[in-house]
Specification:
Layout (H helix, E strand, L loop, with lengths): L6 E5 L7 H9 L1 E6 L5 H14 L7 E3 L5 E3 L3 H8 L5 E10 L12 H4 L2 E3 L1 H4 L6 E7 L3 E2 L6 E2 L1 E2 L4 E2 L15 E6 L5 H8 L10 E3 L2
């Protein structure tokens, strides 16, 4: 897809097992070791800072994804992005579950391991389901890269350029798979669904 370099902001706070760190270091350049308690404000600051620093120029396209986010697009789509005068791409965050809600390491494609597609974050966690994972370097991302902004005053970031999406219509937004694989997941679902594990009414199993 034309991605030439991989960079990582690695959140090491409270981490005891270095295996993940060692694996990431083999596959990406770690530009920042974040060894402080997580806050959304710091996340926004670091993402905006480093997506500018790693870019050769303001108009370069940059993917920004979290470790639990996966985007699958075609080469034709990338060509459309590169030939456009847009400066960001809208996406829907679709939560993906394994059938049992558990993590079972396999060699299967990540989308096969987590086939259940849901709007769990949107409807049960009351969170934003929009995701902006692909922008030009100058575009300012809000917390969680859910929105694009012209200013983030707390960190002195401002840019007056007109923000232009490639895909304004929600029907054309790309899918951002949000893999639900944290260890408290089953307890969280149990509490959110009032002691029921039935997430099927929010789901659409892929054929």
């Amino acid at each position: 897809l034309g991605v030439t370099e991989f960079y990582c902001i690695f959140h090491t706070y409270g981490m005891k097992d270095k295996k993940i760190y060692d694996y990431v270091k083999q596959n990406a350049k770690i530009v920042h070791h974040w060894d402080e308690p997580y806050t959304t404000e710091w996340e926004a600051r670091l993402k905006n800072q480093y997506k500018r620093e790693i870019s050769d120029h303001d108009d370069e396209w940059v993917w920004v994804v979290d470790a639990d986010e996966f985007v699958e697009v075609s080469q034709d789509f990338i060509r459309e992005v590169l030939s456009s005068d847009a400066n960001y791409v809208n996406g829907w965050m679709i939560d993906r579950f394994s059938p049992e809600g558990l993590i079972k390491p396999t060699d299967d494609n990540i989308f096969i391991q987590f086939p259940l597609r849901t709007f769990y974050t949107r409807f049960k966690l009351n969170g934003s389901a929009s995701k902006v994972t692909l922008t030009r370097a100058f575009v300012i991302l809000g917390t969680g890269h859910h929105v694009v902004l012209n200013e983030l005053y707390d960190y002195g970031l401002t840019d007056s350029r007109v923000l232009k999406p490639l895909n304004e219509s929600e029907d054309e937004w790309v899918e951002v798979a949000h893999i639900k694989w944290h260890e408290q997941l089953l307890e969280e679902i149990y509490n959110k669904f009032t002691k029921t594990m039935d997430i099927c009414k929010y789901s659409a199993r892929e054929q």
